[in-house]
Automatic annotation (TrEMBL):
It comes from the Bacteria. InterPro entries: Bact_2-comp_sensor_kinase (IPR050640), HAMP_dom (IPR003660), HATPase_C_sf (IPR036890), HATPase_dom (IPR003594), Sig_transdc_His_kin_internal (IPR010559). Residues 318-370 form the HAMP domain. This is HAMP domain-containing protein. The chain crosses the membrane at residues 12-32, 297-317. Keywords: Cell membrane, Kinase, Membrane, Phosphoprotein, Transferase, Transmembrane, Transmembrane helix. It is a multi-pass membrane protein. It is found in: Cell membrane. It holds the Pfam family His_kinase.
Amino acid sequence: MQISRLKLKHQILLIFLFSVIIFSIMEFYSYYSFYNLTQNRAANYGNKIIEQTSQKINSVFNDIKVSTKIAVDNKKIQEFTIADDDYKRSFDIGTYVIELMEYMRSFNSYVNGIVINDNQGRRVHSTGNGDIFYSKQYEEFVSTYKNDSNSVGTGQFTTLLKDEKTGSEYFFYIAPIIESIGGVQFSQRTGYCSIMVNTEKLKELVQNTELTPNSTLYILNSQNEVIVSNNTNFRGILYEDILSVDRNRLTNGVKTTINDEEVIVQEKDLEQADGWRIVSIIPVQELTTDMYAIKNISIIAGIGIILSMLILGYFFLNNLTRPVMGLIADMKKIGKRDVGFRVKVRSTNEVGVLAYDINSMIDKMEEMTSNIFHTQASLYESELSKKQAEFSALQSQINPHFLYNTLNCISSIGLEYGSKEIALITSSMSKIFRYSIKKDDLVMISEEIQCIQAYLKIISIRYENKFDMEINVDEKMLEMKTPKMILQPIVENSVYHGLESMDAGGTLRVSGHLDANGDVCFQIWDSGKGIGKDELESLKAKLNMAFSERVENSFVGNSIGISNINNRIQLLFGEGYGVGIESEIGYGTTVIVKIPCM
């Protein structure tokens, strides 16, 4: 169904409903866009916090590595691991080594203890908790790293060691001691340096991270053990749900559900410890708490605007369509030739102005019709010459015929479409009327073409562009002269008698050219049903009959327009000019108008 076929009030109602739907969609889209933007910004904030924390931890681990590197490269410590003289080892070198380890501990608060072991199992340590270093559990734990071929050249951070006696958890940085002082074991591994990392200090660093109140931050080793966390309830353990999340997506944050709660999980690798990483778990609800007030305000504002649009739409629809419907009803009465009836002016807006203009037009039309009839009577009663009287009578018949058809057209359009089309038709009619009442009998061809164009505008609205209509006149002819109103009645006949009965697809073509003799020829062709052979012959006979007989018969019949035009042309220019007609059933009709070049 075409929207243009709907009544005006239904079209306006559709526009308001469409506006409400579009606004509602935009409202929902804006809310969810803002909601997602808030989450993304919060996730970016969490990512920055994790980045800062990872930089601090990387700095701590790097300091431990540097301190350990200084220790294992120290000449005295290397001598300690290869010395055979126990006295020299204990009192000469050992004292220095212990002082060096004490200095390292005091210099770096993240170092909780240092142990130097040689290949013979001898050791020296500096720690606040030395019991763990002498336990069999520690020896078994460290031996796996001493025998690991991957740790021959470089150090590595260990997994967690849980003290069976105290329940405390430790992890270490173990680096090999490679002899580089030129002894018999040059470039060989002579021992190990074990650094016990202060987990309490790491825990303080994590706990001081500024996340949301219930967020959790973990430092995980390569075995997914929690080294430290700001949540003591999950110390040493991690949700299996987190481990199942695709790690490639964790860098930018992944929304998931843990313990029936929506959270955003993010991960950052630690550069100074292979396989180690920081994982944060931030509840989504805490990220969007500030959204609740905005959401409620947005919903209330959206509902208020929608209700306002509906109320305003109702009043607008009622105030616009009511006078239009009244205007259409009045136009129906005018179409039925209710003499003396005038359109009621129901408002002061554009519809009211249109009603006022229609009333003025009707007044002028009735005045014109009255003047035409009075003029016609006076012409017949006057003692003017016969040809001048006949010419004036024929001229006076055209305008009432055209006014009648046009008035019916206005009524039909007003019923179907409303004010816009009525305004356009009124404008076109005004141009035609102004042209038709010009005092000049001869006008420029360009003026006659403009009259046809105005009429075709009316027809295109009346029949909803059902027909193709075109005008093709040689530009050299536009400044030439022609009798007034000789083409429009023929075009009108082509529409009403040729194309009107067609459903769609009809064509109307108006063309003009100069023939071989230099005369002006117009052709009006329509693709309508055509004229039967008998009727065509009758029409041609009427055009060819004696002049007095044509005048007498030109006042009756459907072909009044063509007969009058033929009579007018021959009165002005003689028998050699006039109107010809050709037609065939199923192939349309062609009317040819010939006048001299002027």
